[in-house]
Amino acid sequence: MTASHQVQGEWKARIAAEYTSAAITQAFVLWLIQAGAPPDLIDAGLVIVQDELVHSRLSHDVYLAAGGAGAPALDREKLGLRRSQASLEVDLLLSGVRVFCLGETVAVPLFSHLRQACTVEVARIALDRILVDEVRHRDFGWDVLDWVLSTPLADEAPALLAHALPSMLAELDGSYGGDNRFVRADDGQMSQADRAWGLAPPREYADILARTIARDYRPRFKARGISLPG
Questions:
Q1: pTM above 0.85, yes or no
Q2: 90 in a domain, yes or no?
Q3: Nearest-10 crossing angle of helices 121-148, 105-116
Q4: How far is C-alpha 64 from the geometric centre of its chain's CA atoms?
């Protein structure tokens, strides 16, 4: 069953993205261990590593079923996390918020949306599994943030995030939102055949990000005494 080049390209990119997420989470878990985080958080992080590898394999199954061939290129510079000049705890806070609180939280409505019109069985199987797991990955991020807010870093965390969140949100906007060149050029049109493989137009990604900022990010941060920039 050969699909469009757009379908093949999207699922090929997802193979690499999920594999990269596994590597990033593995590095993050090591930081948790080094920081003496609660065992439950460490265990949850290790489960996520396995989830992401499964997601990558499922994405590869879809890619092959769509007529794709060849492996995606992996950027080794992105297969992990780099320590900054700050303390380990600060790096944990900022990376946890960027990767999990922001990235995994918006992933839940994104994958839910992609799944709605997906009818090709192999793609539906992949999205069913990914969506279930993304909910736990989102919750892990907020659990990590709650733990950091129970440590001696708690007093500094609001100011650190007030400084870092604008650039984090700008990064998301560049990936999914109105600042993304594909969103700016998108007319919102997509064939039902491509939607059946679990795709959606870039404009719909941008709409989901905007709703996530209002409905998820802002109230979740506010409940923790952290102001999200307007």
A1: yes
A2: yes
A3: 160
A4: 23
